[in-house]
Amino acid sequence: MSVIPLENITIGGLLRRSAARYPERPALQQRGGILSYREMDEAVDLAARRLMKWGVRTGTHIAIRAEAHQETIIAMYALLRIGAVVIMINTSLIAPEVENLLVRTDAEGMLIGDGYKTLIYAADSAPLLGVLPLGIKYIGMDGAQGSFDKLSDTEPAEEPLLAGAEAAVDPQDIAYILFTSGTSSNPKSVVTTHYSFANSGIQQASDQQATCEDKFCVAMPIFHCFCMSVNVLSSCAVGACLYLPDTRRTGELLRAVSERRCTVLSSVGALFHAMLSRSDFEQWDLSSLRTGFIGGSSYPPEFFKEIEKRFGFTLLSSLGQTEATAGITTACMDDPLEVRATTVGHLMSHIEGRTVDGELCIRGYNVMKEYYRCPGPTAEAIDEEGWLHTGDMGYFDEAGNFHLTGRKKELVIRGGENISPAEIDALFFGDRRFRYVKTVGVPDPHYGEELCLCLEMAEGGVSEVELRDYMKEHLADFKIPRYILIIEGFPVTSTGKVITSKLKEIALSMLGLEQ
After folding, report:
1. pLDDT digits (tens, 9 = 90+) for 278-296
2. Which pTM does this prediction carry?
3. Which of 138, 277, 370, 457 lies in the 20 to 30 Å Cα band around 109?
4. Element of type H or E holding 103
5. What does the pLDDT look like over 94-138, one tens digit per residue?
6. Where exactly are the structural domains of the chain?
7. Chain-centre distance of CA 375, in angstroms?
């Protein structure tokens, strides 16, 4: 595949260009309603003028606490069009947690949707007004606005004001403050630019060989960097349609593909596993699917092959993180299945990479500017030469494909032996008996650390003897965990990643090792 050049373009400019190239092509679809690129571009302009009337200007920090609905996408593009900084809030967080993020990122206002699961944002957002000079506006679709004014009821500013604001936005300006998944500690606030995100979308659309004929199914949370890059901006880059299911439940996602004929489905391994585990999986018509990325945690090759076979599409392995605007490596569409299943592919175009003591370090357009107002952690992550130390461990093979072996911070050092918990977890990934599997290190007076295998059962049962016998067939003795715990209710993020720090606390408590 030819290398697509980087472009000096803003996210707002990317949408403008697609609206000019594909004015009548579908841009957004939800609940059967479709907006063309022309209609979406016009809706973004109107929302941008309303935001300006509200008091939003270039550089204003505005948070969005809303699920992936049509109004959310329009509001996000509108903020970016006038040069505001968009802070995407995890929709699972409760009000005190949201307040912490708002304060940390100097948010001046917030846009709220209806809610998520049992959370009703109009009911719990009032205390947040105290830290938001501009207040809160409602952008939901179901009318659960409470006492908050609708953005759609705000009088728009004059058109020339929008034109002036849009012209002043530079590709190197800050576009987003996104938060890391927070699986081992408090989420870090990652600052990225228009240039990084627009080009990430362009490059990943190319990696997926996407065209204006494609329809991207949003299966991941909109606040997640992976979703923003491989879905929202990739579809925009080529004038494709972004399909927004009403929920991220497995049945709704399968229905979206089957009935709305989606062609691109990207997700994390945990969600693919959940869809495959449904008793009615084989009843859905998934023949429209063409490709998609798998990201998130590591997985065994056999599971990758099962996803590709049962979904019937070309699955692309990848590696990314929020600090790298989601994308670091990708497999090619024409790579053999074995390569795609056993590696996370090659470095994406325009990205340099090397390993230092087994850790992957990268440099390029996609590297974040900083952790917001955190110079110490920023300097730890990005060295003086601009190399981002990803924390991912592995090696490049002769063909340039990267083999992921684990996370640096999760390595367990047992009696001087470095052990990757991911190697143990991979033995059980895809096993229908387990909902979650995670190995953690716990303190030991003799070896320094010991391994503890934590399991959450999904169905059936299994004895510790069976588990140990199985591991002995595949692992060296020193890699077999000393402890095995059955835990009900793993602590996980909204994307299905296990929150390692909290799981470790649970394990220590169960083992009586808190001290």
Report:
1. 999 999 999 999 999 998 7
2. 0.88
3. 370
4. helix 95-104
5. 999 999 999 999 999 999 999 999 999 999 999 999 999 999 999
6. 11-396, 411-511
7. 24
